[in-house]
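// run 5 | inverse folding | seed 20
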């Protein structure tokens, strides 16, 4: 990734002879960025390989082609599990957990429905009203890998929780234990510290409830799941440059990395195929870290490069309403201060509200009013070692409006427009900043590829356009749209 590069880029730009290796570097960084998702995909693929292997042994056994071997050895494969199997000895059944190197006695699949349906945990959950909490957590945290209905996702290698056979292998203790500590050697992460004891118990009961043979339990689970599945969950902290105001995980650490290839319009001039519509050009690359102090309160630090005044932005954000909690809308407030030249001059103070609402399970709209006190006009610095110029501070107000629409379960199209309603012309802003793009969601990752007319990504700069930045009044017309991308990764 390019996080260490502002200095290096500075030197490169200064040299201004645009060394050829820079293009190569850009491509490598792009590839590195894209590969952030690859370990996940690789392990998902290996999960797939092993679980298909398990499944095919089951069907081989089931079709009677070679039942003698498994019978003679007393081995039973478990549908959907790639790390557990059951061994029968002297009339007793033992669950062998390969990932944990653990063996314990189990009731076995055949008697599962009786032993486990409506078990005490599930019953307790149903009666105590924790089911909703459990369903909510399952939708928010688990469904990416386990499927919204708990039936498992082949590519993620997850078992079908609604199968009585699978549930027979999962005692209440085992479920809670797995949620707390994860499963080594598989994608299943540990949730201890991320979820409270209470939340772990609730989602554990929900997992048990999914396979209940008791019709009313099933209805409770299904309706709780339906309720929470109605709420749209943004894939990233940003649509493109506008914040989504989504909640962070308590103690979660997030990296946000943005690139705006502002110097090469994507659609005009020479044919752009050879330079990947501008992607191998010079970009404004910003980098930030966010930390969830609680699941509602987060802090962040973010920096943009020298070519745009090297602002450092420090921010605190509070999410005070969330649709996942049954509220009619999501509302967050963000307060930030940015200072150019690495927080040493041209300070701007920003107050933002972020309001969003689910339109359907697959779409959400966003409104982001933002007040920036003492904002500075966007200017390009061509001599990177110089301080950004001393420009007058101007108070401004912008109203960002955006939308996301999921066109596939993990792919959304996004669009946003950020008109500056107060003092736009004073900042050299004559047309609103806008962007559109496509956003891919992975577990704890998001990648957004888009086109926009604004090079800025910190609050006080994002409403500025390419025209102000380059000092060319025509540069923010449609023909001046340029490509860019955002990467988000939750590290912990
Ligand atoms: C990144 C993907 C991922 C996420 C997110 C995830 N899981 Fe898992 N989980 C897995 C995989 C893969 C397995 C199967 C492991 C195996 O091969 O046995 C699994 C297995 C399990 C098991 C069964 C373990 C066993 O002993 O067989 C339980 C229970 C479980 N997950 C619960 C949860 C809950 C509850 C959540 C949400 C709080 C969750 N998982 C989130 C990937 C995930």
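// decoded
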């Amino acid at each position: 990734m390019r996080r260490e590069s502002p200095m290096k880029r500075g030197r490169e730009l200064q040299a201004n002879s645009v060394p050829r290796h820079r293009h190569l570097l850009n491509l490598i960084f792009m590839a590195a960025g894209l590969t952030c998702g690859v370990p996940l995909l690789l392990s998902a693929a290996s999960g797939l390989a092993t679980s298909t292997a398990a499944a095919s042994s089951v069907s081989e056994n089931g079709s009677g082609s070679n039942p003698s071997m498994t019978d003679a050895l007393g081995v039973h494969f478990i549908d959907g599990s790639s790390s557990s199997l059951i061994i029968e000895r002297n009339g007793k059944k033992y669950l062998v957990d390969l990932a944990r190197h653990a063996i314990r006695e189990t009731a076995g699949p055949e008697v599962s429905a009786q032993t486990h349906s409506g078990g005490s945990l599930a019953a307790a959950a149903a009666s105590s009203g924790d089911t909703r909490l459990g369903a909510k957590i399952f939708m928010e945290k688990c469904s990416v890998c386990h499927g919204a209905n708990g039936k498992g996702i082949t590519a993620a290698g997850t078992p079908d929780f609604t199968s009585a056979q699978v549930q027979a292998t999962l005692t209440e203790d085992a479920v809670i234990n797995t949620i707390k500590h994860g499963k080594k050697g598989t994608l299943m992460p540990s949730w201890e510290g991320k979820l409270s004891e209470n939340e772990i118990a609730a989602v554990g009961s929900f997992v048990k409830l999914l396979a209940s043979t008791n019709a009313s339990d099933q209805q409770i689970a299904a309706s709780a799941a339906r309720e929470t599945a109605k709420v749209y969950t943004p894939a990233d902290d940003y649509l493109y440059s506008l914040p989504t105001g989504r909640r962070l995980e308590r103690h979660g650490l997030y990296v946000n990395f943005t690139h705006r290839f502002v110097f090469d319009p994507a659609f005009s001039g020479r044919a752009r195929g050879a330079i990947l519509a501008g992607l191998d050009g010079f970009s404004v690359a910003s980098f930030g870290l966010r930390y969830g102090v609680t699941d509602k309160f987060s802090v962040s630090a973010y920096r943009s490069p020298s070519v745009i005044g090297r602002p450092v932005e420090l921010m605190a954000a509070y999410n005070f309403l969330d649709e996942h909690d049954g509220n009619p809308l999501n509302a967050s407030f963000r307060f930030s201060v940015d200072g150019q030249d690495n927080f040493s001059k041209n300070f701007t103070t920003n107050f933002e509200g972020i309001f969003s609402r689910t339109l359907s399970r697959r779409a959400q709209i966003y409104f982001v009013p933002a007040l920036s006190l003492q904002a500075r006009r966007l200017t390009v610095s061509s001599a990177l070692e110089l301080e950004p110029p001393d420009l007058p501070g101007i108070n401004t107000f912008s109203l960002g409006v955006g939308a996301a629409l999921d066109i596939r379960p993990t792919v959304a199209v996004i669009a946003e427009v950020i008109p500056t309603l107060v003092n736009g012309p004073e900042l050299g802003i004559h047309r609103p900043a806008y962007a559109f793009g496509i956003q891919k969601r992975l577990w704890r990752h998001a990648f957004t590829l888009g086109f926009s007319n604004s090079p800025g990504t910190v609050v006080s700069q994002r409403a500025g356009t390419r025209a102000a930045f380059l000092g060319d009044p025509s540069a923010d017309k449609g023909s001046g749209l340029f490509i860019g991308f955002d990467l988000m990764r939750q590290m912990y």
